[in-house]
Protein backbone atom coordinates (compact mmCIF):
# COMPACT_ATOMS: atom_id res chain seq x y z
CA UNK A 1 0.00 0.00 0.00
CA UNK A 2 1.04 3.62 -0.48
CA UNK A 3 -0.34 7.12 -0.12
CA UNK A 4 -2.10 6.83 -3.48
CA UNK A 5 -4.27 3.89 -2.45
CA UNK A 6 -7.48 3.57 -4.36
CA UNK A 7 -10.73 2.14 -3.10
CA UNK A 8 -14.45 2.08 -3.48
CA UNK A 9 -16.46 5.03 -2.26
CA UNK A 10 -18.62 4.40 0.76
CA UNK A 11 -22.06 3.08 -0.08
CA UNK A 12 -23.58 5.15 2.70
CA UNK A 13 -24.12 8.73 1.56
CA UNK A 14 -24.52 9.95 5.13
CA UNK A 15 -21.02 8.86 6.02
CA UNK A 16 -19.33 9.72 2.74
CA UNK A 17 -20.67 13.22 2.17
CA UNK A 18 -19.33 14.75 5.37
CA UNK A 19 -18.04 18.27 5.50
CA UNK A 20 -14.74 18.48 7.37
CA UNK A 21 -14.01 21.32 9.77
CA UNK A 22 -10.47 22.68 9.93
CA UNK A 23 -8.71 22.65 13.26
CA UNK A 24 -8.68 26.45 13.16
CA UNK A 25 -12.44 26.73 12.65
CA UNK A 26 -13.52 23.80 14.82
CA UNK A 27 -14.29 25.72 18.00
CA UNK A 28 -16.23 28.42 16.15
CA UNK A 29 -18.38 25.94 14.25
CA UNK A 30 -18.98 23.61 17.19
CA UNK A 31 -20.07 26.56 19.27
CA UNK A 32 -22.59 27.54 16.61
CA UNK A 33 -23.88 23.98 16.32
CA UNK A 34 -24.14 23.30 20.02
CA UNK A 35 -25.21 26.65 21.45
CA UNK A 36 -28.63 26.14 22.99
CA UNK A 37 -28.84 22.50 21.93
CA UNK A 38 -26.46 21.43 24.67
CA UNK A 39 -27.02 24.17 27.19
CA UNK A 40 -30.02 22.42 28.70
CA UNK A 41 -28.44 18.97 28.69
CA UNK A 42 -27.88 17.91 32.29
CA UNK A 43 -26.27 14.70 33.41
CA UNK A 44 -29.15 13.62 35.70
CA UNK A 45 -31.55 13.65 32.74
CA UNK A 46 -29.18 11.43 30.78
CA UNK A 47 -28.16 8.79 33.28
CA UNK A 48 -30.37 5.94 34.32
CA UNK A 49 -27.71 4.26 36.46
CA UNK A 50 -26.84 5.60 39.89
CA UNK A 51 -23.42 3.95 39.68
CA UNK A 52 -22.39 6.64 37.23
CA UNK A 53 -21.66 10.04 38.72
CA UNK A 54 -24.26 12.71 38.06
CA UNK A 55 -21.66 14.96 36.46
CA UNK A 56 -19.60 12.36 34.61
CA UNK A 57 -21.37 11.41 31.41
CA UNK A 58 -18.13 12.16 29.58
CA UNK A 59 -16.20 9.70 31.75
CA UNK A 60 -18.65 6.82 31.37
CA UNK A 61 -17.25 3.86 29.49
CA UNK A 62 -18.28 2.97 25.97
CA UNK A 63 -20.01 -0.10 27.39
CA UNK A 64 -22.01 2.01 29.84
CA UNK A 65 -23.27 4.52 27.29
CA UNK A 66 -23.95 1.70 24.84
CA UNK A 67 -26.31 0.20 27.40
CA UNK A 68 -28.07 3.53 27.87
CA UNK A 69 -28.44 3.89 24.11
CA UNK A 70 -29.82 0.37 23.81
CA UNK A 71 -32.43 1.03 26.53
CA UNK A 72 -33.14 4.45 24.98
CA UNK A 73 -32.46 6.23 28.29
CA UNK A 74 -30.32 8.56 26.20
CA UNK A 75 -30.29 9.36 22.51
CA UNK A 76 -27.23 9.42 20.32
CA UNK A 77 -27.96 13.07 19.49
CA UNK A 78 -27.97 14.00 23.20
CA UNK A 79 -24.76 12.08 23.78
CA UNK A 80 -23.08 13.62 20.74
CA UNK A 81 -24.16 17.13 21.67
CA UNK A 82 -22.75 16.62 25.17
CA UNK A 83 -19.42 15.48 23.75
CA UNK A 84 -19.24 18.39 21.30
CA UNK A 85 -19.97 20.83 24.10
CA UNK A 86 -17.23 19.28 26.24
CA UNK A 87 -14.73 19.54 23.39
CA UNK A 88 -15.51 23.27 23.18
CA UNK A 89 -15.12 23.66 26.94
CA UNK A 90 -11.93 21.63 27.39
CA UNK A 91 -9.97 21.07 24.21
CA UNK A 92 -8.88 24.66 23.65
CA UNK A 93 -6.31 23.91 26.35
CA UNK A 94 -5.65 20.23 25.64
CA UNK A 95 -5.33 20.40 21.83
CA UNK A 96 -6.24 16.76 21.28
CA UNK A 97 -8.37 17.39 18.17
CA UNK A 98 -6.88 18.36 14.83
CA UNK A 99 -10.34 18.61 13.29
CA UNK A 100 -13.89 18.29 14.61
CA UNK A 101 -16.66 16.95 12.36
CA UNK A 102 -19.63 18.42 14.22
CA UNK A 103 -22.10 18.45 11.34
CA UNK A 104 -21.24 14.90 10.34
CA UNK A 105 -21.45 13.66 13.92
CA UNK A 106 -24.91 15.12 14.47
CA UNK A 107 -26.17 13.80 11.13
CA UNK A 108 -24.88 10.33 12.01
CA UNK A 109 -26.41 10.54 15.48
CA UNK A 110 -29.84 11.43 14.08
CA UNK A 111 -29.66 8.48 11.70
CA UNK A 112 -28.63 6.18 14.55
CA UNK A 113 -31.54 7.30 16.70
CA UNK A 114 -33.94 6.45 13.88
CA UNK A 115 -32.40 3.00 13.52
CA UNK A 116 -32.48 2.25 17.25
CA UNK A 117 -36.09 3.46 17.50
CA UNK A 118 -36.95 1.03 14.70
CA UNK A 119 -35.31 -1.83 16.59
CA UNK A 120 -32.31 -2.06 14.27
CA UNK A 121 -29.40 -2.02 16.67
CA UNK A 122 -26.06 -2.95 15.13
CA UNK A 123 -24.02 -3.68 18.24
CA UNK A 124 -22.10 -2.09 21.12
CA UNK A 125 -20.69 0.82 19.06
CA UNK A 126 -24.05 1.84 17.60
CA UNK A 127 -24.58 5.53 18.37
CA UNK A 128 -21.41 5.95 20.42
CA UNK A 129 -19.29 9.06 19.68
CA UNK A 130 -15.67 8.16 18.92
CA UNK A 131 -12.63 9.83 17.33
CA UNK A 132 -9.71 8.60 15.25
CA UNK A 133 -6.06 9.46 14.81
CA UNK A 134 -5.64 11.78 11.86
CA UNK A 135 -3.79 9.14 9.85
CA UNK A 136 -7.02 7.41 8.83
CA UNK A 137 -8.48 8.38 5.48
CA UNK A 138 -11.96 9.90 5.82
CA UNK A 139 -13.74 10.48 2.51
CA UNK A 140 -14.31 14.18 1.89
CA UNK A 141 -12.87 15.09 5.30
CA UNK A 142 -9.30 16.45 5.58
CA UNK A 143 -6.64 13.92 6.58
CA UNK A 144 -3.26 15.45 7.33
CA UNK A 145 -1.30 13.09 9.58
CA UNK A 146 0.41 15.99 11.32
CA UNK A 147 2.11 16.75 7.98
CA UNK A 148 2.28 20.11 6.24
CA UNK A 149 2.67 18.24 2.93
CA UNK A 150 -0.81 16.77 3.48
CA UNK A 151 -2.44 20.14 4.16
CA UNK A 152 -6.02 20.20 2.83
CA UNK A 153 -5.74 16.63 1.54
CA UNK A 154 -9.26 15.25 0.99
CA UNK A 155 -9.28 11.46 0.57
CA UNK A 156 -11.54 10.04 -2.11
CA UNK A 157 -12.40 7.04 0.05
CA UNK A 158 -12.52 5.88 3.65
CA UNK A 159 -9.86 3.77 5.32
CA UNK A 160 -11.08 0.24 5.96
CA UNK A 161 -11.13 0.90 9.70
CA UNK A 162 -13.43 3.86 9.08
CA UNK A 163 -15.78 1.77 6.93
CA UNK A 164 -15.92 -0.82 9.69
CA UNK A 165 -16.59 1.78 12.38
CA UNK A 166 -19.37 3.29 10.28
CA UNK A 167 -20.81 -0.19 9.64
CA UNK A 168 -20.85 -0.68 13.42
CA UNK A 169 -22.85 2.56 13.76
CA UNK A 170 -20.17 4.64 15.47
CA UNK A 171 -20.49 8.44 15.40
CA UNK A 172 -17.34 10.31 14.31
CA UNK A 173 -16.59 13.37 16.44
CA UNK A 174 -13.40 14.17 14.56
CA UNK A 175 -9.74 13.55 13.85
CA UNK A 176 -7.05 13.60 16.54
CA UNK A 177 -3.69 15.34 16.64
CA UNK A 178 -0.43 13.43 16.36
CA UNK A 179 3.26 13.84 15.80
CA UNK A 180 4.41 14.60 12.27
CA UNK A 181 4.00 11.48 10.14
CA UNK A 182 3.47 9.42 13.34
CA UNK A 183 7.10 9.68 14.37
CA UNK A 184 8.30 11.58 17.50
CA UNK A 185 8.50 15.31 16.71
CA UNK A 186 5.71 17.73 15.78
CA UNK A 187 5.41 20.12 12.86
CA UNK A 188 5.07 23.71 14.05
CA UNK A 189 1.80 24.13 12.17
CA UNK A 190 0.17 21.63 14.52
CA UNK A 191 -0.66 21.81 18.22
CA UNK A 192 1.01 19.49 20.73
CA UNK A 193 -1.63 17.68 22.83
CA UNK A 194 -1.43 18.39 26.57
CA UNK A 195 -1.50 15.58 29.12
CA UNK A 196 -4.65 16.10 31.24
CA UNK A 197 -2.85 14.72 34.33
CA UNK A 198 -0.33 17.56 34.17
CA UNK A 199 0.53 20.14 31.54
CA UNK A 200 4.27 19.49 31.90
CA UNK A 201 3.94 15.72 31.52
CA UNK A 202 4.75 13.80 28.35
CA UNK A 203 1.49 12.96 26.53
CA UNK A 204 2.96 10.07 24.56
CA UNK A 205 4.37 9.83 21.10
CA UNK A 206 2.39 9.75 17.88
CA UNK A 207 -1.05 8.77 19.22
CA UNK A 208 -0.87 11.55 21.81
CA UNK A 209 -4.12 13.16 20.69
CA UNK A 210 -5.89 9.81 20.97
CA UNK A 211 -4.53 9.30 24.47
CA UNK A 212 -5.42 12.80 25.65
CA UNK A 213 -8.94 12.83 24.16
CA UNK A 214 -9.78 9.43 25.63
CA UNK A 215 -8.35 10.25 29.06
CA UNK A 216 -10.07 13.64 29.20
CA UNK A 217 -13.54 12.34 28.31
CA UNK A 218 -13.59 13.92 24.85
CA UNK A 219 -14.66 10.69 23.13
CA UNK A 220 -15.71 7.22 24.27
CA UNK A 221 -13.00 5.48 22.29
CA UNK A 222 -10.32 6.39 19.80
CA UNK A 223 -8.05 4.74 17.28
CA UNK A 224 -4.29 4.96 17.51
CA UNK A 225 -1.39 3.45 15.62
CA UNK A 226 1.70 1.71 16.95
CA UNK A 227 5.01 1.42 15.06
CA UNK A 228 7.42 1.53 17.99
CA UNK A 229 5.05 1.99 20.93
CA UNK A 230 2.59 4.70 19.92
CA UNK A 231 -0.54 3.04 21.27
CA UNK A 232 1.14 1.86 24.45
CA UNK A 233 3.17 4.95 25.37
CA UNK A 234 0.22 7.40 25.08
CA UNK A 235 -1.97 4.89 26.96
CA UNK A 236 0.69 4.77 29.67
CA UNK A 237 1.17 8.54 29.74
CA UNK A 238 -2.57 9.29 29.95
CA UNK A 239 -3.65 6.43 32.22
CA UNK A 240 -5.96 4.62 29.79
CA UNK A 241 -6.27 1.26 28.02
CA UNK A 242 -4.50 0.61 24.73
CA UNK A 243 -4.75 -2.58 22.65
CA UNK A 244 -2.12 -3.16 19.95
CA UNK A 245 -3.42 -6.10 17.91
CA UNK A 246 -1.46 -8.78 16.11
CA UNK A 247 0.05 -7.42 12.88
CA UNK A 248 -2.51 -7.95 10.12
CA UNK A 249 -5.51 -8.35 12.43
CA UNK A 250 -6.63 -4.79 11.55
CA UNK A 251 -6.33 -3.49 8.01
CA UNK A 252 -3.91 -0.63 7.30
CA UNK A 253 -5.61 0.20 4.00
CA UNK A 254 -6.25 3.92 3.80
CA UNK A 255 -3.98 4.75 6.75
CA UNK A 256 -0.99 7.03 6.10
CA UNK A 257 2.02 4.77 6.67
CA UNK A 258 5.12 5.40 8.72
CA UNK A 259 6.75 1.99 8.29
CA UNK A 260 4.56 -0.61 6.62
CA UNK A 261 6.16 -3.69 8.17
CA UNK A 262 5.81 -2.21 11.67
CA UNK A 263 2.53 -0.23 11.63
CA UNK A 264 -0.40 -1.51 13.73
CA UNK A 265 -3.85 0.09 14.18
CA UNK A 266 -5.75 -0.42 17.43
CA UNK A 267 -8.22 0.96 19.98
CA UNK A 268 -7.58 3.29 22.92
CA UNK A 269 -10.32 3.30 25.54
CA UNK A 270 -11.15 3.68 29.24
CA UNK A 271 -11.77 -0.01 29.91
CA UNK A 272 -10.64 -3.40 28.64
CA UNK A 273 -14.13 -4.43 27.53
CA UNK A 274 -14.37 -1.22 25.49
CA UNK A 275 -11.07 -2.04 23.78
CA UNK A 276 -12.36 -5.53 22.98
CA UNK A 277 -15.58 -4.10 21.52
CA UNK A 278 -13.72 -1.71 19.21
CA UNK A 279 -11.21 -4.39 18.24
CA UNK A 280 -13.99 -6.76 17.22
CA UNK A 281 -15.55 -4.02 15.11
CA UNK A 282 -12.39 -3.09 13.18
CA UNK A 283 -10.56 -6.43 12.88
CA UNK A 284 -10.86 -8.89 10.02
CA UNK A 285 -9.66 -9.77 6.55
CA UNK A 286 -9.45 -6.96 3.99
CA UNK A 287 -8.79 -7.76 0.34
CA UNK A 288 -7.33 -4.26 -0.09
CA UNK A 289 -4.56 -4.99 2.42
CA UNK A 290 -2.39 -7.96 1.38
CA UNK A 291 -0.91 -8.15 4.89
CA UNK A 292 -4.30 -8.59 6.58
CA UNK A 293 -4.97 -12.00 8.10
CA UNK A 294 -7.58 -14.60 7.19
CA UNK A 295 -7.85 -15.78 10.80
CA UNK A 296 -11.30 -15.53 12.35
CA UNK A 297 -11.77 -12.63 14.74
CA UNK A 298 -12.49 -14.02 18.22
CA UNK A 299 -15.60 -13.03 20.15
CA UNK A 300 -13.61 -11.67 23.07
CA UNK A 301 -16.54 -9.89 24.71
CA UNK A 302 -18.33 -13.17 25.35
CA UNK A 303 -15.25 -14.50 27.16
CA UNK A 304 -14.77 -11.60 29.55
CA UNK A 305 -16.16 -13.33 32.63
CA UNK A 306 -13.30 -12.81 35.08
CA UNK A 307 -12.29 -16.49 35.03
CA UNK A 308 -8.55 -16.76 34.33
CA UNK A 309 -7.93 -20.07 36.06
CA UNK A 310 -6.61 -21.63 32.85
CA UNK A 311 -4.30 -18.75 31.92
CA UNK A 312 -0.53 -18.43 32.43
CA UNK A 313 1.36 -15.21 33.08
CA UNK A 314 5.06 -14.92 32.36
CA UNK A 315 7.35 -12.90 34.60
CA UNK A 316 10.99 -11.91 34.20
CA UNK A 317 11.87 -9.83 37.25
CA UNK A 318 15.03 -8.40 35.68
CA UNK A 319 13.02 -7.36 32.60
CA UNK A 320 10.43 -5.63 34.79
CA UNK A 321 13.16 -3.76 36.67
CA UNK A 322 15.26 -2.76 33.65
CA UNK A 323 15.07 1.04 33.44
CA UNK A 324 11.93 1.25 35.60
CA UNK A 325 11.61 3.31 38.81
CA UNK A 326 11.12 1.28 41.96
CA UNK A 327 7.58 2.60 42.47
CA UNK A 328 6.50 1.23 39.07
CA UNK A 329 8.20 -2.10 39.78
CA UNK A 330 6.21 -2.33 43.02
CA UNK A 331 2.95 -1.51 41.22
CA UNK A 332 3.59 -4.19 38.59
CA UNK A 333 4.48 -6.75 41.25
CA UNK A 334 1.10 -6.02 42.81
CA UNK A 335 -0.53 -6.71 39.42
CA UNK A 336 1.29 -10.06 39.29
CA UNK A 337 0.19 -10.90 42.84
CA UNK A 338 -3.41 -9.97 42.05
CA UNK A 339 -3.54 -12.07 38.88
CA UNK A 340 -2.13 -15.04 40.79
CA UNK A 341 -4.64 -14.56 43.60
CA UNK A 342 -7.58 -14.74 41.17
CA UNK A 343 -6.40 -17.84 39.36
CA UNK A 344 -3.55 -17.20 36.91
CA UNK A 345 -0.50 -19.47 36.97
CA UNK A 346 2.92 -17.82 37.13
CA UNK A 347 5.64 -19.01 34.75
CA UNK A 348 9.21 -17.72 34.78
CA UNK A 349 10.42 -16.45 31.40
CA UNK A 350 13.59 -14.81 30.10
CA UNK A 351 12.88 -11.73 28.00
CA UNK A 352 15.48 -10.15 25.68
CA UNK A 353 16.03 -7.02 27.75
CA UNK A 354 19.80 -7.16 27.30
CA UNK A 355 19.28 -6.43 23.60
CA UNK A 356 17.83 -2.97 24.23
CA UNK A 357 20.42 -1.10 22.17
CA UNK A 358 20.28 -3.62 19.32
CA UNK A 359 16.50 -3.26 19.30
CA UNK A 360 16.68 0.52 19.06
CA UNK A 361 19.39 0.54 16.39
CA UNK A 362 17.67 -2.10 14.27
CA UNK A 363 14.30 -0.41 14.60
CA UNK A 364 15.70 2.95 13.47
CA UNK A 365 17.24 1.42 10.34
CA UNK A 366 14.04 -0.40 9.35
CA UNK A 367 11.65 2.41 10.26
CA UNK A 368 13.63 5.22 8.63
CA UNK A 369 14.17 3.20 5.44
CA UNK A 370 10.47 2.35 5.13
CA UNK A 371 9.39 5.91 6.05
CA UNK A 372 11.64 7.31 3.33
CA UNK A 373 10.03 4.95 0.82
CA UNK A 374 6.54 5.93 2.05
CA UNK A 375 7.29 9.64 1.53
CA UNK A 376 9.04 9.29 -1.82
CA UNK A 377 6.45 11.49 -3.56
CA UNK A 378 7.10 14.48 -1.27
CA UNK A 379 10.62 13.93 0.06
CA UNK A 380 13.10 15.31 -0.87
CA UNK A 381 11.18 17.34 -3.48
CA UNK A 382 9.25 19.20 -0.72
CA UNK A 383 11.74 18.74 2.09
CA UNK A 384 11.39 22.35 3.26
CA UNK A 385 7.71 21.69 4.13
CA UNK A 386 8.62 19.03 6.68
CA UNK A 387 9.29 19.78 10.33
CA UNK A 388 12.84 19.73 11.61
CA UNK A 389 12.84 16.32 13.28
CA UNK A 390 10.93 14.34 10.65
CA UNK A 391 12.95 15.91 7.85
CA UNK A 392 16.14 14.72 9.56
CA UNK A 393 14.63 11.28 10.12
CA UNK A 394 13.69 10.93 6.45
CA UNK A 395 17.17 12.07 5.45
CA UNK A 396 18.66 9.35 7.65
CA UNK A 397 16.37 6.85 5.93
CA UNK A 398 17.62 7.96 2.54
CA UNK A 399 21.14 7.01 3.65
CA UNK A 400 20.18 3.42 4.54
CA UNK A 401 21.26 1.07 1.76
CA UNK A 402 19.28 -1.95 0.65
CA UNK A 403 21.99 -4.19 2.12
CA UNK A 404 21.80 -2.35 5.46
CA UNK A 405 18.02 -2.76 5.46
CA UNK A 406 18.28 -6.47 4.67
CA UNK A 407 20.88 -6.94 7.41
CA UNK A 408 18.54 -5.19 9.85
CA UNK A 409 15.77 -7.53 8.73
CA UNK A 410 17.97 -10.52 9.58
CA UNK A 411 18.69 -9.06 13.03
CA UNK A 412 14.97 -8.45 13.50
CA UNK A 413 14.21 -12.10 12.75
CA UNK A 414 16.90 -13.21 15.21
CA UNK A 415 15.47 -11.05 17.99
CA UNK A 416 11.93 -12.16 17.11
CA UNK A 417 12.87 -15.81 17.58
CA UNK A 418 14.11 -15.13 21.10
CA UNK A 419 11.07 -13.04 21.96
CA UNK A 420 8.47 -15.38 20.47
CA UNK A 421 10.01 -18.43 22.14
CA UNK A 422 9.31 -16.90 25.54
CA UNK A 423 5.84 -15.70 24.57
CA UNK A 424 4.91 -19.21 23.45
CA UNK A 425 5.23 -20.43 27.04
CA UNK A 426 2.42 -18.22 28.39
CA UNK A 427 -0.78 -16.34 27.63
CA UNK A 428 0.84 -13.03 28.58
CA UNK A 429 4.12 -11.65 29.81
CA UNK A 430 3.59 -9.00 32.50
CA UNK A 431 5.93 -6.00 32.24
CA UNK A 432 6.03 -2.19 32.05
CA UNK A 433 4.51 -0.42 29.08
CA UNK A 434 7.48 1.87 28.54
CA UNK A 435 8.15 3.56 31.86
CA UNK A 436 6.17 6.31 33.58
CA UNK A 437 4.98 9.75 32.43
CA UNK A 438 7.91 12.16 32.68
CA UNK A 439 8.20 15.94 32.59
CA UNK A 440 9.01 17.45 29.22
CA UNK A 441 10.22 20.92 28.24
CA UNK A 442 7.49 23.00 26.62
CA UNK A 443 7.83 23.05 22.85
CA UNK A 444 10.80 20.66 22.78
CA UNK A 445 8.93 18.30 20.46
CA UNK A 446 9.03 20.97 17.76
CA UNK A 447 12.81 20.65 17.64
CA UNK A 448 15.23 18.50 15.68
CA UNK A 449 17.15 15.37 16.61
CA UNK A 450 19.14 17.10 19.38
CA UNK A 451 15.99 18.46 21.05
CA UNK A 452 14.19 15.13 20.80
CA UNK A 453 17.07 13.02 22.15
CA UNK A 454 16.23 13.58 25.86
CA UNK A 455 12.67 12.43 25.15
CA UNK A 456 13.87 9.28 23.39
CA UNK A 457 16.24 8.50 26.25
CA UNK A 458 13.28 8.49 28.66
CA UNK A 459 11.50 5.78 26.66
CA UNK A 460 12.27 2.10 27.20
CA UNK A 461 12.55 0.41 23.78
CA UNK A 462 12.84 -3.10 25.25
CA UNK A 463 9.26 -2.70 26.55
CA UNK A 464 7.74 -1.59 23.24
CA UNK A 465 9.76 -2.45 20.15
CA UNK A 466 9.84 -6.29 20.41
CA UNK A 467 6.06 -6.60 19.94
CA UNK A 468 6.18 -4.36 16.87
CA UNK A 469 9.08 -6.34 15.41
CA UNK A 470 7.27 -9.63 15.99
CA UNK A 471 3.78 -8.28 15.28
CA UNK A 472 2.42 -9.74 18.51
CA UNK A 473 -0.47 -8.25 20.51
CA UNK A 474 -0.18 -6.23 23.70
CA UNK A 475 -2.59 -4.65 26.17
CA UNK A 476 -1.71 -1.62 28.28
CA UNK A 477 -3.90 -0.71 31.25
CA UNK A 478 -3.71 1.42 34.43
CA UNK A 479 -2.23 -0.16 37.56
CA UNK A 480 -1.84 2.68 40.06
CA UNK A 481 -0.66 6.23 40.70
CA UNK A 482 2.39 7.88 42.16
CA UNK A 483 2.14 10.01 45.29
CA UNK A 484 2.03 13.02 42.95
CA UNK A 485 -0.96 11.62 41.05
CA UNK A 486 0.94 10.43 37.97
CA UNK A 487 -0.63 7.28 36.44
CA UNK A 488 1.20 3.95 36.33
CA UNK A 489 0.52 1.32 33.68
CA UNK A 490 1.22 -2.35 33.09
CA UNK A 491 1.61 -4.15 29.78
CA UNK A 492 0.40 -7.66 28.97
CA UNK A 493 2.32 -9.01 25.98
CA UNK A 494 0.66 -11.99 24.32
CA UNK A 495 1.69 -14.49 21.66
CA UNK A 496 0.58 -14.07 18.04
CA UNK A 497 -3.25 -13.97 17.79
CA UNK A 498 -3.41 -13.87 21.59
CA UNK A 499 -5.76 -10.90 21.95
CA UNK A 500 -8.36 -12.97 23.78
CA UNK A 501 -5.95 -14.10 26.48
CA UNK A 502 -4.51 -10.68 27.23
CA UNK A 503 -7.98 -9.11 27.31
CA UNK A 504 -9.30 -11.81 29.65
CA UNK A 505 -6.38 -11.20 32.01
CA UNK A 506 -6.71 -7.42 31.76
CA UNK A 507 -10.44 -7.54 32.35
CA UNK A 508 -10.09 -9.84 35.37
CA UNK A 509 -7.50 -7.51 36.90
CA UNK A 510 -9.65 -4.48 36.15
CA UNK A 511 -12.61 -6.03 38.01
CA UNK A 512 -10.57 -6.27 41.21
CA UNK A 513 -9.22 -2.71 41.09
CA UNK A 514 -10.59 0.77 40.42
CA UNK A 515 -7.64 2.43 38.70
CA UNK A 516 -9.49 2.67 35.38
CA UNK A 517 -12.33 4.58 37.06
CA UNK A 518 -10.06 7.43 38.14
CA UNK A 519 -9.91 10.38 35.77
CA UNK A 520 -8.05 13.69 35.48
CA UNK A 521 -9.75 16.75 36.92
CA UNK A 522 -10.48 18.54 33.65
Q: Number of DSSP helices?
A: 18
What is the 3D shape? Answer: globular
- The residue-averaged pLDDT reads 90
Largest sheet, strands/sense/barrel: 11 strands, mixed
Number of strands: 11
| Amino-to-carboxy terminus distance | 40 Å
Low-confidence stretches: 1-54
Instruction: Kindly report the oligomeric state of this protein.
Output: single chain
Give the spatial strand order of the biggest sheet: 1-3-2-4-6-5-10-11-9-7-8
H/E series: HHHHHEHEHEHEHEEHEHHEHHHEHHEEH
Helix content: 25-40%
Which percent range describes the beta-strand content? 5-15%
Strand pairing plus helix content: what structural class? alpha/beta
Write the layout of secondary structure elements.
Blueprint: H1 13-16, H2 26-34, H3 43-46, H4 62-70, H5 76-94, E1 97-100, H6 102-117, E2 129-133, H7 160-167, E3 171-176, H8 208-215, E4 222-226, H9 232-238, E5 241-244, E6 264-269, H10 272-282, E7 312-315, H11 317-321, H12 326-341, E8 345-348, H13 356-374, H14 388-398, H15 402-423, E9 428-432, H16 449-457, H17 461-470, E10 474-481, E11 487-493, H18 499-512
Parallel strand pairs: 2-3, 2-4, 7-8, 7-9
Antiparallel strand pairs: 1-3, 4-6, 5-6, 5-10, 9-11, 10-11
Helix pairs in contact: 2-5, 5-6, 8-9, 10-18, 13-14, 13-15, 13-17, 15-17
Concise structural overview:
The chain is an alpha/beta fold.
Task: Explain what you see.
Helix content is 39%, strand content 11%. It is built from 18 helices and eleven strands. The protein has helices at residues 13-16, 26-34, 43-46, 62-70, 76-94, 102-117, 160-167, 208-215, 232-238, 272-282, 317-321, 326-341, 356-374, 388-398, 402-423, 449-457, 461-470, 499-512; strands at 97-100, 129-133, 171-176, 222-226, 241-244, 264-269, 312-315, 345-348, 428-432, 474-481, 487-493. The protein has an eleven-stranded mixed sheet with strand order 1-3-2-4-6-5-10-11-9-7-8, sandwiched between helices. Strand 2, helix 7 (160-167) and strand 3 (171-176) form a beta-alpha-beta unit. Helix 2 (26-34) runs antiparallel to helix 5 (76-94). The longest helix has 22 residues, at 402-423. The protein is globular and about 60 Å long.
